[in-house]
Design a protein that fits this description.
The complex is a heterodimer. Chain A is α+β, with helices and mostly antiparallel strands. Chain A is built from 5 helices and 12 strands. Chain A starts with a helix and ends with a helix. Classes of the chains: A alpha+beta, B mainly alpha. Chains A and B meet through α2, α3 and β2 of A and α1, α3, α4 and α6 of B.
Chain lengths: ~270, ~170
C-alpha cells in the first residue's frame, strides 16, 4: 500500500497530465460525433454574452452590405406580392395554406466561422424563443446549417461547412437526389455525392434541398453546379456546387421549425 | 508573490479575450489564424510548481475551446506542451536552466526564438491533427501547422519585443 501511494506521489505530474489529456480527448471525440450532447459548447451564458457584445461592435463594419442584402430580399418579396394575379376574394381558400407547417424565426449570427474543418456558428436565439435541436437554418439566399446545442438565449449551428453533417439535396429540374458534404478545401464550395449516373447534368444548374428530411422543406436553394465527374465505381456523379451564400459574410438568418416534427418522429420511432 | 498571481490572472483573461474576439477572426488568406495564447505557456515562470502550471495550461486551452466550439483540441495541445516544456527548456537553454535561474527577459534572443519555434510547432501539430482528425488529410494538417505556426511565431516575437522594451 505504501508503495502504491509512493508511486502516485512520485508520478503525480505525469498522472495529472495523462488525466487532463484523456479529458480533452474525450471532449474532442464528442465534438466529432454529431448529436451527442456536448459539455463544451459556446451556447452558454458566459461565452454567448461575450460574443454578443463583441458582435454589437463588429456588426457596424458590415452594416452596409447586410442592409443591401436585406433590401434585395425585400425587393424580391415585394415583386412576388404585387405580381400575384387576381384579387383575393372572400371565401377564397389559398391551397398553399394547407402545407404551411413550417414556422420561421429570424435571428442574428453573433459568431461566424468558416476557416476550421468543423465550423460551428452561434445565434442570438435560444430555448426561450422555442428554438430546439435539429431546426434548420437558412439565409435569404440559401441553406446554412442545422441547430445543435441550445441554451436559454443562444444556440449553436452546425454549418454546412462541417465534416460531421450530410444534408439531402437534389437537382431543381429533376428529382435525382444525393447527399451534400464538404471537403474542407473551399468555404464557398460543397460537394454533392451519389447523384445517379443517368441524371441529366449541366454546368450552372441549380441544386435545392430535397425535403426528404424533417429539417428543411423542399426547394430551398443551395447553389449552382460548378463541375461534375463520375466517381471511381462509375455509378454516381460527384458534383462540385458553388454556394449561393457567401459563407464569409452572413448576419441575418431564419430558423425553420417543422411544426409536424413531433408527430413524424413519433411515427418513425413506433415502427 | 501576490503581485505575480494577479498579473498572470490578468494576462490569462486578456489573452483569452484577445484570441476569441480578434485573432480567431483574422482568417488571413482564407484560413490562417495566429494562436497567440501559447505565449502564456511559453513565458510562464519556471520555478513555480508544475502541477499548477499544467492545470492552468489545461484551463487556458479549455476556455479557448469553449469559445470556438472545437471540443478539446486546444486543451489537449496546451496541456501537452506544458508537460514537455522542461525538456525543451533544457534543450534550448542548457546550463542556465539546470541552475533554475532562468529569466526570460535576460536570455539570448536567438535561443528564445528557437524555444518559441519548437513549442509553437508541437502545439500547432497536435492542434490541427486533432481538429482535422482524419489520417487521409494529414497533408492539410501539416500545411495549416506550417502557415499558422509562422504567423503565431511572428506575433509572439513582436509581443515579447514590445513588452520587454517598456520595462
Amino acid at each position: 500500500m505504501q508503495q502504491i501511494i509512493n508511486f502516485f506521489l512520485r508520478n503525480k505530474t505525469f498522472l495529472l497530465y495523462l488525466f487532463l489529456l484523456f479529458l480533452s480527448l474525450v471532449f474532442t471525440i464528442q465534438s466529432h460525433s454529431y448529436h451527442k450532447s456536448r459539455f463544451i459548447n459556446s451556447a452558454n451564458f458566459l461565452t454567448g454574452g461575450i460574443y454578443n457584445s463583441v458582435n454589437n461592435v463588429q456588426s457596424f463594419f458590415n452594416l452596409k452590405s447586410q442592409n443591401e442584402l436585406l433590401q434585395e430580399e425585400n425587393n424580391y418579396l415585394k415583386s412576388v406580392l404585387y405580381n400575384t394575379s387576381g384579387e383575393f376574394k372572400e371565401g377564397f381558400i389559398d391551397s398553399t395554406r394547407f402545407s404551411s407547417n413550417y414556422k420561421f424565426t429570424s435571428a442574428r449570427i453573433i459568431k461566424n466561422s468558416y476557416a476550421s474543418t468543423n465550423n460551428v456558428l452561434l445565434l442570438n436565439k435560444g430555448r426561450s424563443d422555442s428554438i430546439d435541436q435539429d431546426f434548420g437554418v437558412i439565409t435569404s439566399k440559401g441553406i446554412l446549417g442545422i441547430i445543435d446545442e441550445t441554451s436559454n438565449k443562444y444556440a449553436t449551428v452546425i454549418s454546412i461547412l462541417n465534416t460531421n453533417i450530410k444534408i439531402s439535396a437534389q437537382l431543381k429540374n429533376t428529382n435525382h437526389f444525393g447527399s451534400l458534404e464538404w471537403d474542407t478545401k473551399n468555404p464557398n464550395r460543397v460537394q454533392l455525392h451519389e447523384i445517379s449516373k443517368i441524371a441529366p447534368l449541366k454546368k450552372g444548374d441549380t441544386i435545392v434541398t430535397s425535403g426528404r428530411s424533417i429539417i428543411f422543406p423542399k426547394g430551398i436553394p443551395v447553389g449552382t453546379i460548378e463541375s461534375f465527374n463520375l466517381d471511381s465505381a462509375e455509378n454516381f456523379y460527384t458534383i462540385e456546387v458553388n454556394l449561393f451564400n457567401d459563407m464569409t459574410n452572413i448576419e441575418h438568418v431564419y430558423i425553420i421549425e417543422n411544426t409536424d416534427r413531433k408527430e413524424i418522429n413519433n411515427l418513425l420511432n413506433n415502427e | 508573490m501576490n503581485n505575480i498571481v494577479i498579473s498572470h490572472t490578468i494576462q490569462f483573461i486578456v489573452l483569452v479575450l484577445l484570441q476569441v474576439a480578434v485573432l480567431n477572426h483574422i482568417n488571413f488568406l482564407g484560413d490562417i489564424n495566429p494562436y497567440l495564447y501559447v505565449i502564456f505557456i511559453c513565458l510562464f515562470p519556471i520555478n513555480n510548481n508544475r502541477i499548477a502550471f499544467i492545470f492552468l495550461s489545461f484551463l487556458l486551452g479549455l476556455s479557448i475551446d469553449l469559445f470556438s466550439d472545437s471540443g478539446g483540441v486546444h486543451a489537449a495541445a496546451s496541456v501537452t506542451i506544458a508537460f514537455i516544456r522542461p525538456v525543451i527548456l533544457k534543450f534550448c537553454f542548457g546550463s542556465i536552466y539546470e541552475h533554475q535561474t532562468i529569466k526570460f527577459k535576460h536570455v539570448d534572443f536567438g535561443a528564445k526564438v528557437i524555444y518559441f519555434i519548437i513549442i509553437i510547432f508541437i502545439h500547432h501539430l497536435i492542434l490541427f491533427s486533432l481538429e482535422i482528425f482524419n489520417l487521409s488529410n494529414i497533408l492539410l494538417a501539416l500545411k495549416k501547422t506550417l502557415f499558422s505556426g509562422i504567423f503565431t511565431l511572428l506575433l509572439c516575437v513582436i509581443t515579447t519585443v514590445i513588452f520587454s522594451r517598456k520595462k
